[in-house]
UniProtKB/TrEMBL annotation:
Residues 17-175 form the Putative restriction endonuclease domain. This is Putative restriction endonuclease domain-containing protein. It comes from the Bacteria. Pfam families: Uma2 (PF05685). InterPro entries: Nuclease_put_TT1808, Restrct_endonuc-II-like, Uma2. Transmembrane segments: none annotated.
Length: 192
């Protein structure tokens, strides 16, 4: 896709209103629409959010993220920002302010969460990217972003199964995962 095409899509996306019951995000010049999430998904987001101490961090749901040099405006399930750097207002939160993003895998978002968004968040130099996966009953924490564009990636990854705590050093939080649910009867995948 050319820069003109990406700019046109980004301008179109700015005023785009998805149909009721759908959420939309811009990922590398493509508008991706998703149905409302499953109850398992929403409970994992809630349980994760409640473990982040509000005296130091703001865990924000459905916050659009602005990535420099990317035709992308992802909407992570959770964005974690230090309280003292949060702007007063705005639809787009600059990626430079973000400490961690969280995506909870849905039945149809496996590739997007593990590959596309992993590269996008690494390109935005987001320090930590946590994928919580109710298909495989695991959390995958990506850290140490490097690179630009589609070649960006995280140099480190750590996997922990549900039921065991996961240390989120970047937040100084031990995430308890024992209450995280799973999707029944969903075919396993091969990510990360």
């Amino acid at each position: 896709m050319t820069a003109v095409d990406e700019r046109g899509v980004a301008e179109f996306f700015e005023g785009f209103e998805p149909p009721d019951g759908l959420k939309a995000e811009l990922l590398r010049g493509e508008i991706v629409m998703m149905a409302s999430p499953d109850l398992v998904h929403n409970l994992i987001v809630l349980l994760t959010e409640r473990q982040i101490p509000l005296d130091r961090w703001y865990p924000l749901q459905t916050q659009d993220v602005d990535l420099v040099d990317e035709a992308s405006e992802p909407v992570p399930d959770l964005v974690v920002v230090a309280r003292d750097v949060l702007p007063d207002s705005g639809r787009l939160l600059p990626c430079q302010l973000i400490t961690m993003v969280v995506e909870v895998v849905s039945k149809d978002s496996v590739h997007r969460d593990y590959a596309v968004k992993r590269s996008i968040y690494a390109a935005g130099n987001v320090p930590a990217y946590l994928v919580i996966d109710p298909i495989m009953a695991q959390c995958v924490l990506f850290t140490k972003p490097e690179g630009k564009g589609e070649d960006a990636n995280y140099r480190a990854q750590y996997i922990e199964k549900f039921g065991r705590p996961l240390m989120l050093d970047v937040l100084g939080v031990e995430l308890k995962t024992s209450e995280f649910g799973t999707f029944p009867d969903v075919k396993p995948h091969r990510y990360p």
